Structure formats: C-alpha cells, structure tokens
C-alpha cells in the first residue's frame, strides 16, 4: 500500500523536500497518507504546481524526461541566489477523451519531476507526480513520490554499467547514461563481474516466485524478476490491492502464470504478495 509519509520521509533523508500548490492561488496543500490532497467535479479544469527543493550538491539532480526517446533535460533552478535550490513545474488538468462523460486529468502528458540521487555508489531515480483517479462524478488528485529505480553502479569497459536485472532498459537510455557519467567518476566504481552481480540477485527464484524490479505509479506498470528473466507487470494483474493497486521495488510476489505477448515479451498474470516461509525452498 502506498504511504506518502513513508516515501516523502525517505526522500527528505536525501535532502529533498516536495510541495504541491493550487497554481492560481499559490496555496500550499497537505497530502493525506495515500497522497490525496484535492478533489473537483470530474468536468472542471484546474492547474497545480509542484515544487522540489534540494541542497546544492553534486550528487543530486532534478530533471524532466520527455517523449518516447526519454530525452533528459535539467530543470531550471528558480532561486539561484539562495542556499537551497528550488525547481517548479505547473501541471494543468487536460480533457480525457473516452466513452464516458467529460473528464479532466493530469495524466495525458504524464506531468512530473524526477530526482537523480547518487548515494554510496548506488543510483536512485525518484519520480514526483500528480495522478488523477476518477471516482464517479469526482476527480481525486494524489501526490505520488516514488523511488522507481535503485541500482548498483559498476565500471565496465571504461564506462558506468548497471546490470539489466537491477534496471531494465538502462542499456538503451543514452541520455541517462550520459547524465550519470557527468555525476560520477567512473574510476571510483568497482569493476563489474558476473559473480558480484550474482551475489546481488541470488534469490533462488523458481516456479511462480518473483521479485519486483520496479513499478511506476504514474504509468501503473513495471517489471518483475522471475526465474525465466524480467517480465512485464500491468496494474490490472495485481490481484491483492483493490483501491490503489501497486507494488514496490524489492517486493516478493507470486504469480498465477507467465505468458509471452506478441512482441515475445514475458508478462506475469495474477500477481499477489509472497510471504517467505522460514526454512522453505
């Protein structure tokens, strides 16, 4: 279950503070523990503002990710003279085209800010977004703070390397690779070996047991590490969370089946939390 207090406290421990406002009034809002902070009739428009405040440290970056190519740009610091940097983004609601009644949502363009943190040779990518849940005639707005990736950084062939088992898609995200090489001295990293990677992921996965690699709340999908390799997880396949379906990176899960879609991508079906049994295999 999502806990705004838990996620925001963990991010605050890295020196990052988050605020959400009604943009036109510049009025700060206080999210509840599930992130809920405001509601409107579903057919009314509104604008919000996100603010992220960070200390000026080389191991922290606030970024915007755009398009299918996931192009990265650094967010502009709006208080360059202050001791603490401030990054802001206005997030309007936009009309959602569907067979249902007219609705407005923050989701169409996936408005968010992301924070890159390097801590003890571990890379973290945090996503801060406003999501909309249409509940009958009203639109509920939630502030979601989520660590979408956490992965060890290694050196391989003179460049930063992240194992696919820890970050699916890192090897094709060239903008992120370039950003990390700006932030980290590759010579300070340990050389990657298969043995070291196996130690990290030696979970004894077999049968229908898996571990969540990541689950993105803004997009409502992620990946699960299985004995057969990484498999796609869609929120509709989460069987044990009714109101706010989600899983967290590191969660152990069981699934009913492992299928292959037309693109030959593995996907898990019927996912539930797994509670390890002491002494079990």
Please give a handful of descriptors for the protein shown.
281 residues, mainly beta, OB fold (Dihydrolipoamide Acetyltransferase, E2P), 2 domains, 5-stranded antiparallel β-sheet, 3 helices, 19 strands, globular, disordered C terminus
Verbal overview:
The strands form five sheets. The chain has a six-stranded antiparallel sheet with strand order 3-12-11-10-5-6. Strands 17-16-15-18-19 form a five-stranded antiparallel sheet, with no helix packed on it. The chain is globular and about 55 Å long. It has three helices and 19 strands. 10% of the residues lie in helices and 46% in strands. The protein starts with a helix and ends in an 8-residue tail after the last strand. It has helices at residues 4-12, 174-183, 194-201, and strands at 17-22, 27-29, 36-41, 47-55, 60-66, 71-74, 84-92, 94-96, 103-105, 112-119, 122-135, 138-152, 154-156, 159-161, 209-216, 221-226, 229-234, 252-260, 266-273. β10 (112-119) and β11 (122-135) form a beta hairpin. The protein has two domains: 4-152, no CATH class; 203-281, OB fold (Dihydrolipoamide Acetyltransferase, E2P), CATH 2.40.50.140. With 281 residues, it is mainly beta.
């Amino acid at each position: 279950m999502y806990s705004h207090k838990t996620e925001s406290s963990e991010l605050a421990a890295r020196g990052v503070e988050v605020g959400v406002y009604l943009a036109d009034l510049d009025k700060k809002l206080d999210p509840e523990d599930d992130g809920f902070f405001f509601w409107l009739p579903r057919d009314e428009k509104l604008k919000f503002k996100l603010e992220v405040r960070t200390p000026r440290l080389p191991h922290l970056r606030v970024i915007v990710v755009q398009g299918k190519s996931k192009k990265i740009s650094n967010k502009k610091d709006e208080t360059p003279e202050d001791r603490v940097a401030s990054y802001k983004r206005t997030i309007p609601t936009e009309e959602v085209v569907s067979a249902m009644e007219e609705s407005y949502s923050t989701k169409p363009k996936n408005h968010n800010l992301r924070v890159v943190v390097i801590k003890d040779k571990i890379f973290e990518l945090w996503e801060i977004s406003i999501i909309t849940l249409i509940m009958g005639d009203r639109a509920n707005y939630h502030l979601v703070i989520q660590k979408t990736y956490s992965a060890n950084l290694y050196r391989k062939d003179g460049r930063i390397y992240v194992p696919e088992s820890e970050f699916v898609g890192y090897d094709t995200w060239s903008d992120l690779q370039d950003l990390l090489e700006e932030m980290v001295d590759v010579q300070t990293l340990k050389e990657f070996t298969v043995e070291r990677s196996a130690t990290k992921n030696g979970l004894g996965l077999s049968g229908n047991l898996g571990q969540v690699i990541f689950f993105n709340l803004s997009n409502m999908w992620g990946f699960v590490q299985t004995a057969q390799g990484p498999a796609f997880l869609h929120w509709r396949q989460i069987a044990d969370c009714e109101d706010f379906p989600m899983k967290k990176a590191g969660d152990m899960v069981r699934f009913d089946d492992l299928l292959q879609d037309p693109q030959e991508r593995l996907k898990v079906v019927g996912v539930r939390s797994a509670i390890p049994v002491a002494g079990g295999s």
